[in-house]
Amino acid sequence: MTTVDAPAQVQLRLLAGPNDGRLDTHLGRHGRPPVLDAGRLVELLRAAGLTGRGGAGFPTWRKIEAVLRAPGTPVVVANGSEGEPASGKDRALLAYQPHLVLDGLQLVAAALGARTAHLYVAAASADGVRAALAARRGAGLDPVAVTVTVAPEAFVAGEESAVVAAVSGRPAVPADKLRRITESGVGGAPTLVQNVETLAHLALIARHGPAWFRAAGTHDEPGTFLATVGGAVDAPGVIEAGYGVRLGDLVDAAGGPASPLQAVLLGGYHGGWVPARPELEVSRAALAPFGASPGAGIVLALPAHACGLAETARIAGYLAGEVAGQCGPCVNGLPRLAGTLGDLAHHRARAGLPAEVRRLAALVTGRGACRHPDGTARMIISAMSAFDADVAAHLAGRCLAADSGHQGVRR
Amino acid sequence: MSTTRLHVDWTACDGRGLCAELLPELLAEDDWGYPVAHTGEAEPEVPRQLQDSARRAVDRCPALALRLVQR
To answer: Domain A23-214 is classified in which CATH homologous superfamily?
Structure first.
């Protein structure tokens, strides 16, 4: 597979450096952010083709338009909570380039006429962003005051409606979505929740324009993204690359494989397993046949000597433990799903288990306030295809992993 | 053309099962007694002839977890 539109490779924009997080460094390199009205911002983002970097990949301009259409004074929220354990890119971005994120937040707040802005971050990022905000206040950079809220360490705490609840002072759990957040979010106001990386890209697009943004990535999926590459690689970390980058290039940028790889979990714990083919492009288009997508940029490499079913069962068990406890089908279904997969993975296999895994995955899908059951089911179903030979072996009382098969991913 | 659909607030539903009794044409109970659409849809479409029964199910849900929505 080749990308004809643009050379896809590891390339730095957000993290071009120097990555010291200082305001004077930032202003020296980028200058003050421009001021744009809402129409101009939407036009720029539409031309650039910027999509949300929190996982869902929704076009940013459309979300902003939805907020603009709703009556009332909007609220904007930058989401850097990153509840996904395999992801570290938002924390890295907030440590290295907090001012790109904060520029982006001010740009959308001003364009939308918001009087309230929130920054929702993991505990590890709180001190850093508070210092960054203090420096900006001193420089008169932030016309809209920003309130920092620390996210609890929970997988679903970064989900959009959970974010709205958290910044409103309520427990960070997802809510029913009879009305969209873009129409009724914080305090009932139309609310724009954007991932921090999305805002950082926005801050650069406002300065350099859509054509510059489109020089990276593919025609249909322009721009760079931050990938968190982990598992069986020699130097796990955050890598920036254009969409369409070869999987092998991402793995090599993280020090290369620590041992021969068999599969890669892309998009995180709600993502999908794909074969560890170096030539595979990391883009929605190229990953769709595997039921995967780049998501929030997580790349978790599974070594050949580990059992993919055991690793999937471990992740499923974690996700079952992260249910918010509100929705019956998820509260009951995810533990049953994880347990059934665990039986298959850990030599308690019996005929009918694979069909039961598939039935339960279909049963929980779409039946929660958030997409936690859907994402968990999707990841498990992708494992049933990616590791179909393992499924057959386990049913026959064997395991394909070279040594006993109970070794998880190194981390 | 918008259609009438049955929306379940899963944070409110506690699986009493009344809706599946009142709307057997649309809903069944899952392994744990929570309503599940025969079609597998998250928000099942309510055909015109079932709208009265659906309204009754909405009104009588003890957890106030059901809504009819236009999508």
So the answer is: NADH-ubiquinone oxidoreductase 51kDa subunit (3.40.50.11540)
B10/A330 touch (CB, cutoff 8 Å), yes or no = yes
| CA atoms A49, A54, A55, A60: torsion sign | negative
Question: What ranges do the domains of chain B cover?
Answer: 4-70
The phi-psi region of residue A345 (left if phi > 0; otherwise alpha if psi is between -120 and 50; otherwise beta) is alpha
Mean pLDDT of chain A: 94
Region A382-397: mean pLDDT is 95
Residues 6+ apart with CB under 8 A from A29: A18
Residues of chain B positioned with their CB less than 8 A from the CB of A368: 10
Q: How many helices (H) and strands (E) does chain B have?
A: 2, 4
Q: B12: which chain A residues are within 8 Å (Cβ-Cβ)?
A: 176
Give the CATH fold of the A308-395 domain.
de novo design (two linked rop proteins) (1.20.1440)
The arithmetic mean of pLDDT across residues A187-199, rounded, is 98
Q: How sure is the predictor about A402, in pLDDT bands with cuts at 50, 70 and 90?
A: low
- pLDDT value for A173: 97
Query: What's the rounded Cα separation, in Å, for the pair A373 and A376?
Result: 5
Give yes or no for a contact between A185 and A75, defined as CB atoms under 8 angstroms apart: yes
Note the ipTM here.
0.96
Q: Could you report the per-residue pLDDT of A239-280, keeping only the tens digit for each? A: 999 999 999 999 999 999 999 999 999 999 999 999 999 999
Q: Model confidence over A81-129: pLDDT tens digits?
A: 999 999 999 999 999 999 999 999 999 999 999 999 999 999 999 999 9
Q: Is B12 on the interface with A (CB under 8 A)?
A: yes
The amino acid occupying position B5 is R
Contact yes or no for A326 and B11 at CB 8 A: yes
Q: What is the pLDDT of residue A407?
A: 46
- The per-residue pLDDT for A349 is 86
**Residue with token string 């995955």:** A361
What is the rounded end-to-end Cα distance, in angstroms, of chain A?
30
- CATH number for the domain whose boundaries are B4-70: 3.30.70.20
Residue type, B21: E
Alpha-carbon gap, residue A337 to A358, rounded angstroms? 9
Among A105, A113, A204, residue whose Cα is nearest residue A147? A105
Shortest CA gap A370–chain B (Å): 9
Residue of B nearest to A329 (CA): B34
The residue extents of the domains of chain A are 23-214, 224-303, 308-395
Task: Please say whether the dihedral angle defined by the alpha carbons of residues A45, A66, A168 and A267, taken in this order, is positive or negative.
Answer: negative
Instruction: Find which of A170, A332, A359, A370 to mutate to test the B interface (most B CBs within 10 Å of its CB).
Output: A332
